[in-house]
Amino acid sequence: MTGTRKVVAALFLLPALVLLGALVLYPIGYSVVRSLYDSSGEQFAGFDNYRALFTDDGIRTALKNNVIWVVFAPTVSTALGLVFAVLTERVRWGTAFKLIVFMPMAISMLAAGIIFRLVYDQDPDKGVANAVWVGVHDSFAQASAFPKAHPGRESPLVGQGGAFVTKDPVKAGTPVALPMVGVAPDQFPDDAGRAVAARPEPGKVTGTVWQDFTRGKGVGKLGAPDATERGYAGMRIEAVKDGQVVASAKAAGDGTFTLPASADGARLRLPAANFREAYSGVDWLGPALVTPAIIGSYVWMWAGFAMVLIAAGLAGVPRELLEQARVDGASEWQVFRKVTVPLLAPVLAVVTVTLMINVLKVFDLVYIIAPGSSQDDANVLALELYRKGFSEGRPGVASAIAVFLLLLVIPVMLFNIRRLRREGRP
Prior knowledge:
- The protein is of the alpha+beta class.
- The protein has two domains: 36-131 and 284-424, MetI-like fold (Orthogonal Bundle), CATH 1.10.3720; 150-275, no CATH class.
- It is built from twelve helices and nine strands.
- It has a five-stranded antiparallel β-sheet, with no helix packed on it. A four-stranded mixed β-sheet has the order 1-4-5-8, with no helix packed on it.
- Helix 3 (57-87) crosses helix 11 (381-391), helix 8 crosses helix 9 and helix 11 runs antiparallel to helix 12 (395-424).
- The two termini are 19 Å apart.
């Protein structure tokens, strides 16, 4: 077409062809050949390594997780990118917002993995996800201040299904002492004050529930509040007769409480809710949620990529069609669903397919974020290739996984190329 001789053109292409052959074609050919030999590389194994792809439990789990990745990660990333691109189109600060959303693309997979390993930390004091989750949870179900409290020596209380109940019925006019131990000094509520012995009141049941422990051997009197001992402020006490709660009260800051006359002859119970362990959040990196959690980190990185490509496609959408739809009475939702999305369908397809190719090769995030205890549950084909080739010393199986991944990527890649060529034609 340009009049250039074929020999000259071939000479110009030769360096690129050499690099292509050395960096792409040779590794592919070597992997295909190596996949037909055993671990030593000396004995011909035929298709035994490929048979392991469907019989090995680790590879089957990886294949199942890859299906989950291919279905959800590109879909969610593309959907978020579409929403961001459309919503930021009309606002003045849209460019700044797009910059912020796209910024994670500047971070390597390694750095993103480390970031989200911390985000998903089980400890709410370290992990942002659990800090938010625990904050929401505690707004509706506050944890107890006495999760480790239990009856002390010579206590009138006995355990009963997580709660503690007095051994004998109580009598009105006779103060009840409910000594307990097990709460660290720095774990007491702010309103907990010095414990005092309850005073008798005619026709009422009174008592004290407190921390019956004083530092120092032989210091303090067992079974009675001492000067340095603190009351269990907010502890709930119930009076139970024939299995029914007839009265209840909460301990004051000094640990004292008062129940009405209906509590006479009842047994006192400290409900299990008083000893509920503090909520520590969700086990994001446990076997059940580790794959969705890692997909979330991937979406955080790649939603910006999808947004930029979709925004570029949106800039080419004829505005006359959108305005005409609005003039005809279509709502913004109808314009988005019936005009914008169909016109962006080619761009959405390219973005989705590109992300599908990308997630088939995902390795870094899974390897870094998933802890050793749940890495088997989060396993994907690229990670299993690494484990089989380097950790287990089975390069033949690892090569078979590599060839299998190539076979999975090729149809998707061809579909993308055909679509791009079709769109490039006049």
